Amino acid sequence: MILASALSAEEIRLMVRPDGQGKNSLSGALDEVARLRAESGGNKKSILIRLEPGDYFLRDGLTIDSSQSGTPEAPTVLQGAEPRKTRLLAVRALSDASWGPVKDPVLSARLPAEGAAAVIVLSWTNLTGSGELGMPKGVFIGSGGLPTLLRGEERVPLARWPAEGYTTMKKVLDSGSQKERRGGQFEYRGEEPSRWVQSVKEGLWLAGFWRVPWVMETVRVDSIDSTNHTIRFAESVSQGIGSKYTKEVNGTRPGDGKEPWYAWNLVEGMTPGTWCFDFERQLVLYWPKEKGEEKKLSLVDLDRPVVLVAGASHLRLEGVTVLGGLKEGILVTAGSNVTVAGCLLSKNGGVGVRVKGGTGHRIQSNNVEESGEEGMWLEAGGRPSLTSGGLRVDNNYIRQPGRVRTVSPGVQLAGVGIEFSHNLLCELNNSGVVFSGNEHRIEANEIYHLGLDSGDLGGIYVNGDWAARGNRIEGNLIHHSPNANGIYLDDGHSGALVTGNVIYRCASGLFIGGGHDHRCSENLVVDCPIGLHLDDRGISRKYNLQSKHHMKNLEEFGYLKPPWSEKYPDLPKMLEKPEYPTGNSFTENVWVACPRPTRLPEKPEIGALLSLSHNQEMNLDSAGLTNPAKFDFRPKEGSALSDWAGKKWLEQHPGLQMDEFRKSLPELEMAGRFEMPKPRQMFDSEKDLKRSNEMSNP
Beta partners for 394? Predict the structure, then answer.
């Protein structure tokens, strides 16, 4: 029976079931919406597609386009009947798959002794009915095109060595050269890699931070010399292997012996509960932890967004779970007034939610968990015309992004006029929010446990854009991140307003890399080694009118003509002394229990350019904060700060809030929120500054 009925003169309801046929199926209901909208008068009624609880398998993904658009008065709504129980799954169930034992003696010999009889295999071509899965490139970042295996809703770890964490290079013998097409060579530690000679013949890749702690690349091995304990790569990584922070000797950086790496997709590294893909034989290998466990497995191989909303307008997607896929969980392109609210995005191979263009979209009260890349990537508005995209992103919970592409921030913002507020980001390998563009408002967010597996990053980070004016960073709480700068305005970036933020127990509070015209006021920095860092790197690095990186956007956007000249009339003044950090002001900021409250250039001529007024430095007792360990930063009566005027940090209530989609806040009770994490490494961004200065002035 078709469960479509007009509930009133203003609404049509279509009921959809996982086993529904025709208009009761999800695709059939969308076709019906397009038909109804195309009819005369079809835009006068709202249309609700209500998805009953259950699993909807989307082998080819789901596309919603302009034909299903609503109007401001009569939107189109896709709604899960029960949040968390209405699931859109981009997975291939393997419950009936034909697993078998390892029969190839060469493959069996590569497995650990106890694994030869335990590991089971599945033919890729028999499973998918498609062609072979091609080998990854010689150098890549991310997944290399490899699918994902799930056990229930849990990612199955890819076999690797070491099983957890990293080993390190002992010594670099040749950094390699992209120009000469010569891969690098290094001496390895221990005996384990000596077992991988057969892997080299069939395809062996190593993933590592080969030069700097913010670039991770996976590289194919050309050869292993087990006698001399050396590995030679088939191709060179960008700028060669060996720590940037060691000086070259005869054209090679010998490294510091701390460059981390691991072997990726390694048959020899299989352990119970892991999987591997054999490109040579086109086999999926799995080592069950218990008998029959393979029945719980599913394969993620959909190479497109799970849900694509392309050019639609006045459409709402509410209360569904989107699981799997190798690309975005939800991708919204163009269109207007699309809302994604109350959804759970989980185990997506790419970005959880991506918005690419359009106007007036809203991303509200969603949970994004364990995405392969960024939790969200948000682009809206036009920089040449300074036209706002009107994108509002609020009350979202983003946890553990970068499960596939390790060095992924929680969120990327780009364009003009994005409002990003009251979001919670945590358990991040890299930065929290990375932004570019103009007139964004990044306000009242809570960000913590940053920099767990990379370095030189920030809770809120932006890099080197002289044209990025009008951005407001206000009322955020950034905490418990000893390997992260709180707010990091890097490499000459200019023109931000930073006010009313609380930065607690991070590597530094504000870290400003030689930029201009920042206005920093009424920020509270507590228990950070450095309260404020500002440097003059533009002098040594030649951030001048010949710097293509810095001048490109100004020239492209026509900064001397309207609307730029009208919106930012004072911008050209920066170019009178572009190498120097001019126009920066710091007013009524408070540094509490920071061993080094300020780290500033010692040159008098630089100090004369800075405006520092009515800032305070004090210890915890003097500050008299009520309970900073529980984020109560109110000054006690009679304390040094009780009569302090500049307490804007008390005006905001950062983080998640309850609303119609978020009925409770269990995330705030998570274990570890009030505790310091243990990052893989600790990295002071000044280390990179000093080394880059040395390289600029050999």
Answer: 364, 421
Q: What residues contact 25, with CB distance under 8 A and at least 6 apart?
A: 16, 17
Q: Residue 195: which residues within 8 A CB-CB, separation 6 or more?
A: 268
| Residue in 323, 396, 422, 272 with CA at minimum distance from that of residue 87 | 323
H helix runs in 104-151, sequence order: 105-110, 124-128
Q: Would you state the structure tokens that stand for residue 330, as one six-digit string? A: 């939800």
DSSP assignment of 546-562, as one string? T-HHHHHHHHHHTTTST
Q: What is the pLDDT of residues 107-146, one digit of tens each?
A: 999 999 999 999 999 999 988 877 899 999 999 999 999 9
CA distance linking residue 196 with residue 231, whole number of Å = 11
In 3D, which of 540, 579, 548 has the Cα closest to residue 690? 540
Check if the beta carbon of residue 592 is closer than 8 Å to that of residue 526. Answer: yes
Residue appearing with tokens 């309970």: 627
Rg, C-alpha atoms of the chain: 27
pTM (predicted TM-score)? 0.96
Residue 3 pLDDT > 50: no
Q: How far is CA 344 from CA 317, 495, 528, 557, in A?
A: 11, 36, 34, 38
Asked, as a colleague might, if the bond just before 18 is cis with ω within 30 of 0, I would say no
